[in-house]
Protein 1
Amino acid sequence: MKGSLNIPNTLSIIRVMLVPVFVATLLFMRDVEVWGLIVPAIVYVLTGLTDMLDGKIARKYNLVTDFGKFIDPLADKFMVLSSMIAILVWMIIRGETTLALVFVWVVLVILLRELGVTSLRLVVAGKSGIVVAASMLGKIKTVSQMVGTVALIIEPLIPVFAENHILSYFFMAVMAFTTIFSGIDYLKAYLPHIDSNK
């Protein structure tokens, strides 16, 4: 890994390290009033910031490396899937059964989308070397997941939403729809490069 730990790669590694911190604070601080919600929310925001910054810095200053191409998407998937599963467990522990039953479908949609798009990328890049850049829908999906995750965590601190969970249901719907439509967008971009007869 000589010469690979530039700023973008360091940010990606920090993102990987922050994910278990987020999970730990969310689950083990759940009985701490106020701060038990604020701390994991802050950790998640910091995690998301590393995701926003590493790619921009790498492209702007031409710091793209093979290690970066490996660690950045890995860190992204680690962050998204770990946080979704942790929040699902958190809801169940808190006794929010109905909310958890709805959210499990959102988690399933996100999981299937990530696995599908990643698989397509690997096949297309391996056979033809084509790399389809992140689309606007993909970026919207990422932002919706980040904002939605924070909203789900801090909702209990907002009295008007704490009982009916309107904020959570709204952002769960937004996350599901943006995930589905961005997945369809990537399918349209990648499928033409795959020969089903080979």
Protein 2
Amino acid sequence: MARESKAAKLKRALAVAERMNARYPKAECALNYHDAFTLVIAVLLSAQTTDVAVNKVTPELFKRWPNPQAMAEAKPVEIEEVIRTIGFYHVKAKNCIACAQMLLSEHAGEVPQTMEELTRLPGVGRKTANIVLTNAFGIVEGIAVDTHVFRIAHKLKFAPKSSDTPTKVERDLLALYPRDMWGPINHQWVLFGREVCIARRPKCMECPINDLCPSA
């Protein structure tokens, strides 16, 4: 592919967004949650595992510890027993408790609504913070870059090879897309990555953006 001008890349990116909007007009977070606190915990647990796996353990988890007050008093081994089927459950159990305790000690038990405060919580990175801000509070600060978004951004050449971290890919996407289009990207691309642009066996012949993809 010849070097693409900035204007041409923007035009292609907008076309991708238009088709994603048509295919996934009501894309939502796949994790089950009840409020901002349970969303923080669910996204925290989803690191390096699937949303399906997380949704299997959170009903019991949130039944036993539905709020920061309850979870702050839990013992790591108790939470480990509930989330044992997901990856890195030892560390995640400790982060759940530490996160709840910080919410109580520094935020009166309420989930903060700024990127800076959210990313100070144990186990909460920028991806988690973006998802919480967008879905719990309707605040769009950026684009949550998970494995699907990271892979698709590179496949579409919206991020160069040198962008080898989620933070760098998010920077590229934020510079490319107008701010009012940031919101739906994560959920749409996650669904697209699961259904069409599958990592090991992409369905390129069925892909609705095949003609817009330099890697096709």
Protein 3
Amino acid sequence: MSLNLADARRIIAAAERKAAELKQPMNIAVADAGGNLIAHVRMDGAWIGSIDISIKKAWTSRAFDIATKDLASHAQSGSQFFGIHASNDGRVMIFAGGIPLKKNGQVVGAIGVSGGSGEQDHAVAEAGAAAL
């Protein structure tokens, strides 16, 4: 089971609404069950440097089936996953804003959001995830 384009559009629309509510333009990416990008939106005024980060947050969340903010806490010096961000050719993001997406308890994709603070990115990702 995986997400499709209609799912991705619905998730992105919900995330965009939250970003607008926060008055923070964001980059929002949705990946399928294989970690492949389905759709991406760069809201007007969102940083171009965050395009890549949002896509990699979605990939990271799917690759490890964990929210990137939770992975970050395990990736600190002295923790079990210290240095993980350097794996997978630097594709792993350990900033808040990536969340695995589940249907019936099974991971079917992920959302990645970048462009604000970590708290804002995570809140926008949660709003997108809730639309699934």
Protein 4
Amino acid sequence: MAGEIHRITQETLDKLKAEYLELTTAGRTSIARTIESARLMGDLSENGDYHAAKDAQGKMESRIRQIDNVIRNHEIVERDEHADAVQYASIVQVVYEGDNDDEFQEFFIGSIEERPDDVLVASPTSPLGEALLNHSIGELVEYEAPSGVLRVKIVGLR
């Protein structure tokens, strides 16, 4: 995904830079020690600790590359706490057509890197995210899903 511009807030950029620094310094040192300790246990072909440590190293290096890509290819966006329409970084409460308003689902419109806990993410470029942008509470919007056209009503915004 090199070259893709990641729209993130300054707060998220700062968080990612701190995670990157931690992983590339203490994280790499720690995993190297774990691998070396496992290596000293003998035969690597049947050494579960060694293989687990190498797997953890691979996952950590993948995360480092992912963060590096976001840091190198980002655009800072500002969050408007008082917006009355769905925008980037909004948390939108929607109900699907035919459901009761109290059966809402919440979606964070933005990057998965910024996702608040326990909230689903709808990328602003996804069919749902794109359909919700710039609409307000009470509006019914529709979007194309694999199963056909779906309609959702915006019942909350935070």
